[in-house]
Write a structure and sequence with these properties.
With about 375 residues, the chain is mainly α. The protein has 16 helices and five strands. The protein folds into two domains: about 220 residues, Orthogonal Bundle (hpI Integrase, Chain A), CATH 1.10.443; about 110 residues, Tyrosine recombinase, N-terminal domain (DNA polymerase, domain 1). The protein has a three-stranded antiparallel beta sheet with strand order 3-4-5, with no helix packed on it. A two-stranded antiparallel sheet has the order 1-2. Strand 1 and strand 2 form a beta hairpin.
């Protein structure tokens, strides 16, 4: 009998196996994690507002109903760099907190173009930093949003940011694992072959968890934030499905294969036997401190095993997601299914990432249609 089937039989009455996906308990536990994360980010925003001009609070409040907490937090980080630049290059003699709303009208199109150039190499809080073209585009988008907000409100008379062109974004190569590398990655997580002595010391305690995490990434394509947010109650072995909280807070039901189910069941069975896990801890994947595993910890464990299997590729959780998307598209040829499973709101996002596969398919069928009959066909 498989581990998954055995686990289902033994734990059929357990809450995290037998539960209704629309149950209030599952929803509340899931929301508790995301609510806590949002509260922490709101605290960060409050602290960052102390480093920004006073009118920035009005801007953030004005866009609150149409943006996520994480988006507004990133706006704060971007604006902090922008206003620091203004005090150094445009509004010399003023501190960031002394900048008035009317000062935005002094910012010219040229100033904003200089800001984009400045981002290639700049100093902030004693550190030398650098932005690539995508980071520059994001910061410009943030500045545009702020200018547009105050311009539309009639609080400033000009919006020079609308005249500045977005930096050209070059297509990034989509890095994926091939099937042989996928198999090797999972085998390495199970065996620990290639790990350093220090890493091997902890491997016996984490190998079942790590294998489950990698298998879930490669078998479902979920985002790292979705994986970290999973709870015991999220998994339903009765129909091999689970609930994830997507970007924006909406929930979706996804399905996993028997192979993924085996890895999850093995990990849950191990957790059942560990008396050190606090009874009140609902998180599915736990750290060695028996708390919900962090995004950073998941990133590190993926890199740890990937370096052994594919040292020339920089593999991250997102690359595992791309690997799954590639496999799913090759298997189905349906870009809409891939977009739905991956949680892309716009199918063009999916098509952009997997266009190369379409080209492979077109190349593969190039000789499918024959114009001249072969000699044997003429007989």
């Amino acid at each position: 009998m498989s581990i998954a089937l055995l686990f289902r039989g033994v734990c059929a009455n357990k809450l995290f196996v037998k539960f209704d996906f629309v149950s209030v308990l599952c929803y509340n536990v899931a929301m508790d994690y995301y609510r806590e994360r949002n509260l922490k980010n709101l605290d960060r925003i409050d602290r960052l507002l102390d480093e920004l001009p006073p009118f920035c609070e009005d801007f953030l409040r004005g866009i609150e109903n149409r943006t996520s907490v994480l988006t507004r937090l990133n706006y704060c980080y971007d604006l902090r760099i922008f206003f620091d630049f203004l005090t150094k290059r445009v509004l010399r003699g003023k501190t960031v907190q002394e900048i008035a709303l009317s000062d935005l009208e002094r910012v010219t199109e040229t100033d904003l173009e200089i800001f984009l150039s400045y981002l290639s190499r700049y100093r902030y809080e004693g550190r030398i930093l650098s932005c690539d073209e995508r980071a520059k585009a994001r910061k410009l988008s943030t500045v545009r949003s702020m200018f547009k907000y105050f311009f539309n409100k009639g609080l400033i008379e000009t919006n020079q940011s609308a005249k500045v062109s977005t930096p050209k974004l070059h297509e990034k190569e989509i890095i994926r694992l091939d099937p042989a590398e996928v198999s090797s990655l999972l085998e390495t997580a199970e065996s620990g072959d290639g790990l350093s002595a220090h890493q091997d010391f902890y491997h016996n305690r984490t190998k079942v968890r790590d294998t489950a995490i990698l298998t879930l990434f490669l078998g479902t394509g979920i985002r790292i934030s979705e994986l970290v947010g999973l709870n015991n109650e999220s998994i339903n072995f009765l129909d091999n499905s689970f609930v994830v909280t997507r970007k924006g807070g909406s929930q979706a039901i996804l399905y996993f294969s028997e192979e993924v189910g085996e890895a999850l069941a093995a990990y849950l069975a191990q957790k059942e036997e560990d008396v050190r896990i606090p009874a009140e801890e609902h998180a599915l994947f736990l750290s060695l401190q028996y708390r919900r595993i962090s995004v950073r910890a998941v990133e590190n464990l993926v890199k740890k095993y990937a370096r052994i299997v594919s040292p020339l590729k920089k593999i991250s959780p997102h690359k595992l997601r791309s690997t799954y998307g590639t496999s799913l598209y090759r298997a189905t040829g349906d870009i809409y299914i891939v977009a739905d499973v991956l949680g892309h709101k716009d199918v063009n996002t999916t098509r952009k990432h997997y266009a190369a596969i379409s080209e492979d398919n077109r190349r593969a069928v190039a000789d499918a249609v024959t114009l001249h009959r072969k000699p044997e066909d003429k007989q």
